[in-house]
Amino acid sequence: MNTPNPIIYIAGPITGMIGENKKSFDDAARSIKNLGLIVRNPHEFCHDIPTGSDWDVYMRRCITKLVECSDVVMLPGWKHSHGANLELQIAEGLGITIHYGLEDFHNSVLQERSAV
Description:
Blueprint: E1 7-11, H1 22-33, E2 38-40, H2 42-45, H3 55-66, E3 71-74, H4 82-94, E4 97-100, H5 102-115
Parallel strand pairs: 1-2, 1-3, 3-4
């Protein structure tokens, strides 16, 4: 999170999850916003895509949002998500800072803020 205006992307499993894992994404978004940071939550920016649309329609939208971000937070279960793994590969390739869980992210933010 070394940019002046960090934007944090949330990645994790959605397809096949109860309630599309919306609660986990929303909880993470709220936690990040409480730190005063900008967050990108797929449930928020994909809300207008018609239900039942193909997976790639969602992923194309997600990828356009991801590339604007400085950091990505991987939610539990990401290893079993094709989309989250794709987002991870893109983040790695673009040098986006990756945090494996909210605790890792919060520790990073605290460490960075205490260094200032």
